[in-house]
Amino acid sequence: MHKSGLEPALLELVKSRASQLNGCAWCLDMHTKDARAQGETEQRLYLLAAWHDAPCYSERERAALAWTEALTRLANAQDVPDAVYLAARQHFDEKQLVDLTLAIIAINGWNRLNVAFRTVVGDYVSPHPGNP
Q: The whole model's pTM is what?
């Protein structure tokens, strides 16, 4: 994902939101620390669970977060609304949307591993400069 060309800040928001939805404390700890180390604000991290109502996210971020929620909650193909797909396509070209989708698939997999194996939360230290 580091070579995808997608903004690192966007990917951290996506990973954090999927981790919230999946109840993965370890991944949520990791990705919010990485986001802060890369300059993300506390307010935007605090409001992430309510991003639909928070004005601090761009339209591109909103499209990515809606796509994240649709794919994370996916039970069958009909669960991804056309409007969510069309909004994502408006803000991401085909390669970017594939890369974003792969990032969402990956974080959902990591969430499931960490939740299933009860990974202890709290010891992650971000390798990024500005490490919180």
A: 0.90
